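Pasting as-is:
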Amino acid sequence: TCALPIFSPEDFRQRLASPRFLPRGTLLAVTPGGAVAALSELEQEDDQRGRLNTGLTGTHRDWRRRGLALALKVAALRVARDLGAREVWTGNATTNRPMLLLNERLGFRPRVAWVEMKRGGLTE
């Protein structure tokens, strides 16, 4: 699973204000000491009724290989079912093999969307 990113308070405010934000879809695994060990986000799709997306799923390095990402993704799929979603989509970096395997295990299947390419550096 991916590393947990560092979010500023402003980042959180923007996420909470997004029309895609689902309070029930923000799932956390918290340590006994109160630290976030893992998270998974379920979001509304902008213009697709009945479709939800799993956004960021990540586990803190110290808590990996304990099934937290799997448990949170399963919980997100249950929330999606309870909300009446007909389908759930997710994105995945092709280089993140552990998350690819987890998503495949949960029944997600790849669809080719685009190829991203870069040439040289950016100049102003």
